[in-house]
Amino acid sequence: MGLNKEFAQAAKAAGVCREWYDRLLQTEDPRGLAELFFNGIDFCLSKGVPSLQRLRELGPEFLNPLGLYVDQEARLGNTPRAALFGACDASAAFNGMTVAQLYATGDTRLHVIATGKAVVTLDAFDNSRVTVEAREGARITVFQYEGAQVQTITGDNPGTVKIVVKHKKTY
After folding, report:
1. pLDDT digits (tens, 9 = 90+) for 24-81
2. Long-range contacts: 158-165, Cβ < 8 Å, 24+?
3. pLDDT digits (tens, 9 = 90+) for 102-144
4. SS in 3 state form for 4-40?
5. Which residues contact 4 (CB under 8 A, 6 or more apart)?
6. Are 68 and 87 in contact (CB under 8 A)?
7. Mapping DSSP to helix (H, G, I), strand (E, B) and coil, where does residue 97 land?
8. Are 156 and 115 in contact (CB under 8 A)?
9. How far apart are alpha carbons 124 and 36 in whole angstroms?
């Protein structure tokens, strides 16, 4: 069975609508599946589709080029989007005119530094612990869900950090 059919069955069991189920069935390449994942991330993260165990089985060689990281160290630089699952230990640096979206789940530890005119949005879930630092006009917005811990670092020439506390576990 192809990965698209496997993911479509898991999504159907979790209650995905017919339109997205059909999209999954029609998308056979990994990049297309990753695109669907990020576009439907609210459903995927709230329903656990694909499962953390299945992501672990797929491994870093398959996942990392798609912006997905599981139980590993990761160093991200000006990456437009990434999702970290399990027990990642990661850092992410953004500069210039970069716009980025990050997702930290599970027991992920993530340190984010943004400089220049970078704009970063981060959704922190579960038991993730994130540290954010905006400098030189950069902007970071963190959506902090129940259980996640957020720490800010301010120094000389700070940028803007906004933390939006969500009083729920997920989307």
Report:
1. 999 999 999 999 999 999 999 999 999 999 999 999 999 999 999 999 999 999 999 9
2. 158/134, 159/114, 159/115, 159/134, 159/135, 160/134, 161/132, 161/133, 161/134
3. 999 999 999 999 999 999 999 999 999 999 999 999 999 999 9
4. HHHHHHHHHHCCCCHHHHHHHHHCCCHHHHHHHHHHC
5. 24, 25, 26, 27, 28, 33
6. no
7. coil
8. no
9. 20
Q: How deeply is 46 buried, as exposed, middle or buried, from its count of CB atoms within 10 A (0-12, 13-18, 19+)? A: middle
Instruction: Calculate the CA 119 to chain-centre distance.
Output: 15
Separation CA 105–CA 103 (nearest Å): 7
- Considering the entire predicted model, what is its pTM? 0.96
Give the type of residue at 158.
P
**Do residues 109 and 72 touch, judged by C-beta distance below 8 A?**
no
| 152 burial level (CB within 10 Å; 0-12, 13-18, 19+) | middle
- The tokens for 152 are 């800010």
User: Please, which residues bridge with residue 76 across strands?
Assistant: 92
